[in-house]
Structures
1.
Amino acid sequence: RPGVFYGQCSEICGANHSFMPIVVEAVPLEHFEFWSSVLLEMATMEEVTLMMDEDMC
């Protein structure tokens, strides 16, 4: 279900993270899919830019 949830990292990572608080925002699947597609597109554009920079050297 969508919402903001609070907890301790130790619930996910184990006892060594017992003093680390976490915040998780759960969103509808459509929002997550859109968000991840935007990040993938940005990463692809950054990769192309880096390749172009290397070609100029």
Note: Residues 3-56 form one domain.
2.
Amino acid sequence: MEKRKPALLYLGNRLQKHGKNPTGVDFLGDQLQAWGYALTRGSTQKNKVLRFLHMHLLLWKSFRQRPLVLIDTYSSLNFWFAVSIALNCRLLGLKYICLLHGGNLPYRLEHSAFWCRALFGKASANVALSDFLAQRFAQYNYITQVIPNGFSIEDYAFKSRNNFAPKLLWVRSFAEIYDPLLAVKVLEALYQDYPQAELCMVGPWDDQAYPACKAYAERHNLPVRFTGKLSKADWHQLAKDYSFFINTTRIDNTPMSVMEAMALGLAVVSTDVGGIPALVEQDRHALLVPSQNLKSFYQAICRCINEPEATRARCLAARAKAERLDWSVIKNKWEELLLNV
């Protein structure tokens, strides 16, 4: 007899309508609905206090339906959102699953041990996006299942390149932890040797990182294009005009933008922080460099330009890796978990 799908309540940051990038509650939530789950999700409140309160309101309003609660769990302020939601789930007798997104969650495991036990130790399941977090959680005796981010590979047209011009694409929010200024400085270094070099930076302007990048580019007369936030379709179209995807982040888990760049055929050069080495294999799918290391970034991009055959081979391998993350593959893992909690 086929098991009945549980009703789901998915709590996370749904801030796309406020100009932010989509998160798990958006793209995984869409898939869960497509797979036939009755899903309530939130919150879309821009103000953090109102968002916190709205999440709890949704929880208390839905408890009579006995939903299985999914909690997007991050490592900064939203960690405390997750802790509070989990405590309320226990008060209401509801099962919950923590979806581990925060690249700095290992810091929480070490420095917020009591609250981690209250959150992760009482969860019906903890789902990591990569082996990186699963291994860190195992060190603290938390059993964690790995289900990577998925996406629809058919939406990503692969562009094969035989040569790689120094045309760089950067896609992320303009926040300090993603080190956008490093991307501008990488372009500056390349520009000395490659006058045709250029950089396009796509993403919402979240904090003071954007004006700092813009001022630096203008002061040094660098060819940097700032588009602001673009739709997925728009930046995918834009990617056809570039050869490289650079990811300069200082803290990360398994960035969706890197997976998308792999699917599109861009040569990926990224920092080696967090779960990124678990997502891509050095020299097989991408070139990985130390965080905040301008020289290593410059050298890696020059190597790709000067070794086009090896770079093309990495791009092909990266596309094959991305195809293994299609929702058709990931779906079975989610179904098995949700139907057996």
Note: Residues 8-150+327-338 form a domain with the Rossmann fold fold (CATH 3.40.50.2000).
